[in-house]
Every structure is written in structure tokens, then in C-alpha cells.
């Protein structure tokens, strides 16, 4: 019996997003609501399959594609000048906290603007301090993880927001000051439209996500143990 093909992103989904970008208003959206529902369902089914594959080797807190996807509607309460809809499907898969840290994110958008992003979007203040303390004490481990061939090949260099100067309590001449100034720790992989629409996207995304696990495992250990290696999770019980 032949194995059924893996879910994939349909061309019709990208066609809808392209048209939405060119006609980003409520009347057009309502007239094309059936296309939106079909495109949204396509992405949800794809992400359902991605979650199923990821759960084979990681503890994923996000259970469904519907749960993973962000709303397509723009929040116009504070930005009334923005278009009412986002011409993309974006979302993410969270890991089971507090033991496991890091997130797997994605954005599907025509015009070569699709991305796979892995990492920490906005660490809480206490977590950021622990990360910086570990970097200051063991920056060689961080550099080894970030300079691993699989990371450099798939993602290049670390990205995300950073301070203009050294954070309080850390010297500006520290050899890892570039890491200490980070307020986000993100690895980004750009996807062409051809790659997004290819039948192997599911396997490709799983492989990209899986390649960051050594970094995630280290960050999870840093954020769940004290300086002596004792579990902070047990201490909270």
C-alpha cells in the first residue's frame, strides 16, 4: 500500500496571500473569505503534521496547527493606519516549560519573505540575567554551540535585538560582549517561494528545528539549574 504524500503548502495559499497584499481591505477579504478559510486550513493541516513529527523527538507544548497560528487580523487599536490584515501565515511551536526552553517559529509569505526562526524572542528579566551570567562565565561553550557547522550552514550568525552598550554588571571589554548585549537570541533561515511550495518542506523544517537542539538543551540547563548544578525546578515544588 502506497504511503500517502506528506502535507504541503498549496500554491493556492500563496496566491491568496499575494492577492490579499494587493487588496488589503475588508470588502475584498469578505468577498474572498472562502479562499482565506481554504488557505488557513491548508496551513493548519501542514503544521499539524509538523507538530506530530516534532513530538517524536521533543516535548512540544503546542498541540495543533490551529493553536500554533497567529491571527491574520491586524490589531488596529493603536495603529489605525496599518492595513487590516497580515498577508502571511505565521506562528510557532512552544516547548514544555519550565523544563524545556526555546521556541520554533515560522512565517509563510510570498515574495521570498518566508522564514524559519528558532530561539528566544523575549526572555524574561530573570532568565536574561541567568543567560548573561552563564555567557560571562562560560562564553567558550556558547561560541562553540553557535559556531557549530550545522548552525552556521543553516542559520549563519545569531540575530535579534541587542543593547548599544554593555548591560549593567558586565564589563564592556568582556570577550563575549557581543553575546552579553543580546536581548533576543534568534537563528533565522530564509525560505524562497520555491522551497515553501516544495513537497519536502515538512522534512526540511523538521531538520532545521532539530539542528538547534544542542543550543536549546544548553539554554534549558542554564535556566533550570543553579551555579552548583542543582535543579531549580525541584526547589520550587
What does this structure look like?
The protein is α+β, with helices and mostly antiparallel strands. It has one domain (11-236). 46% of the residues lie in helices and 11% in strands. The protein contains twelve helices and four strands; from the N terminus they run H-H-H-H-E-E-E-H-H-H-H-E-H-H-H-H. The protein has helices at residues 11-22, 26-31, 33-54, 65-68, 125-137, 139-146, 149-155, 177-180, 193-197, 201-211, 213-224, 232-236; strands at 89-94, 103-108, 114-120, 185-191. It has a four-stranded antiparallel β-sheet with strand order 1-2-3-4. Helix 3 packs across helix 10. The relative contact order is 0.14.
Question: Which helices and strands, and how do they pair?
Answer:
Layout: H1 11-22, H2 26-31, H3 33-54, H4 65-68, E1 89-94, E2 103-108, E3 114-120, H5 125-137, H6 139-146, H7 149-155, H8 177-180, E4 185-191, H9 193-197, H10 201-211, H11 213-224, H12 232-236
Antiparallel strand pairs: 1-2, 2-3, 3-4
Q: Which key terms come to mind for this protein?
A:
alpha+beta; 12 helices
Summarize the structure.
The chain contains 12 helices and 4 strands.
Q: What is the overall pLDDT average?
A: 93
Structural class: alpha+beta
Q: List SSEs in N-to-C order.
A: HHHHEEEHHHHEHHHH
Number of strands: 4
Unreliable runs, pLDDT <50, ≥5 residues? none
State the strand order across the main sheet. Answer: 1-2-3-4
In terms of DSSP E residues, the strand content is 5-15%
Largest sheet, described in full?
Answer: 4 strands, antiparallel
Structural Rg: 20 Å
* Shape designation: globular
Count of separate structural domains = 1
Q: How many separate helices?
A: 12
User: Roughly how many Å apart are the termini?
Assistant: 50 Å
What is the helix content?
A: 40-55%
Amino acid at each position: 500500500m502506497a504511503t500517502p504524500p506528506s502535507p504541503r503548502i498549496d500554491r493556492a495559499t500563496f496566491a491568496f496571500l499575494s492577492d490579499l497584499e494587493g487588496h488589503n481591505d475588508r470588502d475584498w477579504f469578505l468577498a474572498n473569505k472562502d479562499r482565506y478559510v481554504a488557505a488557513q486550513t491548508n496551513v493548519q493541516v501542514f503544521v499539524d503534521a509538523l507538530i506530530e513529527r516534532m513530538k517524536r523527538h521533543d516535548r512540544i507544548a503546542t498541540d495543533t496547527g490551529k493553536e500554533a497560528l497567529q491571527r491574520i487580523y491586524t490589531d488596529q487599536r493603536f495603529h489605525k493606519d496599518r492595513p487590516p490584515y497580515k498577508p502571511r501565515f505565521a506562528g510557532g511551536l512552544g516547548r514544555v516549560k519550565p523544563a524545556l526552553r526555546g521556541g520554533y517559529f515560522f512565517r509563510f509569505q510570498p515574495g521570498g519573505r518566508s522564514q524559519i526562526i528558532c530561539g528566544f524572542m523575549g526572555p524574561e528579566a530573570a532568565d536574561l540575567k541567568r543567560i548573561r551570567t552563564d555567557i560571562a562565565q562560560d562564553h567558550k561553550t556558547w561560541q562553540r554551540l553557535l559556531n557549530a557547522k550545522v548552525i552556521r550552514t543553516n542559520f549563519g550568525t545569531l540575530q535579534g535585538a541587542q543593547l548599544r552598550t554593555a548591560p549593567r554588571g558586565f564589563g564592556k571589554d568582556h570577550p563575549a560582549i557581543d553575546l552579553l548585549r543580546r536581548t533576543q537570541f534568534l537563528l533565522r533561515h530564509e525560505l524562497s517561494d520555491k522551497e515553501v511550495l516544495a513537497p519536502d518542506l515538512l522534512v526540511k523544517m523538521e531538520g532545521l528545528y532539530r539542528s538547534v537542539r544542542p543550543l536549546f538543551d544548553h539554554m534549558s540547563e542554564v535556566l533550570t539549574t543553579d551555579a552548583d548544578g542543582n535543579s531549580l525546578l525541584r526547589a520550587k515544588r
